[in-house]
Here is the input.
Amino acid sequence: MVANHDIHLSVRKGTVHALVGENGAGKSTLMKILYGMQKPDEGTIRVDGQEAAFGSPADAIARGIGMVHQHFMLADYLTVLENTVLGSEKLHGIGGAARRRIIELSERYGLGVRPDARVEDLGVAERQRVEILKVLYRGATTLILDEPTAVLVPQEVDALFGNLRELKAEGLSVIFISHKLGEVLSVADDITVIRRGTTVGTAVPAETTPKQLAELMVGSELPTPETAESTVTERELLRVEGLRLCADGGRPVLDDIGFTIHEGEVLGIAGVEGNGQTELIEALIGLKGADSGRILLAGEEITPWPTRKRREHGVGYIPEDRHRHGLLLDAPLWENRMLGHVTEEPSAKGFWLTPKAAQEDTRRIVAEYDVRTPGIDVTAGSLSGGNQQKLIVGREMSHKPRFLIAAHPTRGVDVGAQAQIWDQIREARREGLAVLLISADLDELIGLSDTLRVIYRGRLVADADPAHITPEELGSAMTGASSGHLEEAAPTTAAPAPDASAPDAPAPDAVQKPVPPQTAKARQEKDTPR
Here is the structure.
């Protein structure tokens, strides 16, 4: 299988050059080649007009190329200074000279990095700036940024783009990889589009729309967004009451969390990463036990249930970290198809595993979800991040869950796959699926959710109406600022659960609100396809 064929890319000094393409188009392979992680079979790389050959990342770094990976490469228990000098002690030592160089770079490029801060105490945006500092510290003049805005709120994206302008002003070059086409057009000076491993065109941002760029990526016209009707019912599917979870030192990371989700409803939780979303997900799926509170599924308490029992009773799970909780990277795709569902068909029948049935169903998922792979026997780790995500979504949706925990369901996928995943969630919602949606994509949260709540420092602090909130207002609320289109959250300790003998009775706080037509209009204006 050829990952890259006849790729042409020319990056001008002092510019931001965006690289876009579908999942599996060859972007990751190309960046691995440019960063010395993989050797090309043929072709030429020139740096400042001189031919270069990279046998390792050290060779690329020596020629001024640095890479900031989508998944940060930082040691949480070390300081910023320690993370920065690790592996580069020969440059400026590990003491005063290194500290002075870090402060100098931080001030020069407006990074606002504190050398003595521990990485575990930093937010996502700060960690990203540390990663940028690391490559600058090593002398990079060309930076590769892989999906740098995937986990940032709008204000943090603006700050990052300000940093990129500082880099450009100093004559540095940036290769910017992203699936967020609106951001690409706003920050890039030049754009290269690759499809199926080949360069298919270039674009001038000022003369291109997101829709045109998306269609150049996929090679066909994208579907037009359609306004969805409300599918929310009065039948309560999930109830969380007074959930509290403390860290090892006794500090609460979840504090009095309570909400309900009804059949056919998507409840969106908005928040800057690190404010309790991970702990909430782990408590709902059974990876962590709560210190207090209750979780009820269709009126039945599941708080003490292990993860497997919750899965067998219809809880689907798209994890926020696909590598840690979603896949076995060294196992073939068909074994990953069985992951989390080894007691259910088609993975098993009775007490017996049924590998052939799992293999056949894996082929169906690969075809239905357009997972770009040479076959089902390759390892999950050999796929691009977007194709890994499509495999996970296909696996979870195939089991027709009653309740789906969807954490960043479209992170790292291209516009075509994003629209497909959204359609799959909408279709299942029409059939009664209840969804808890957690996402860093605020357009996704606003466009898919029937109800929005904001989590801040482990508490649900505000409610928002998707019909009226903007991404900027939602982003402000996520950082603790107030907004005119948000209401203070109601007390989260929920009322007693409804009588299980009367499942069709309205829940105390049932909602019946239409998906706003202006949501579809706003999304269309942003050219974000559904």
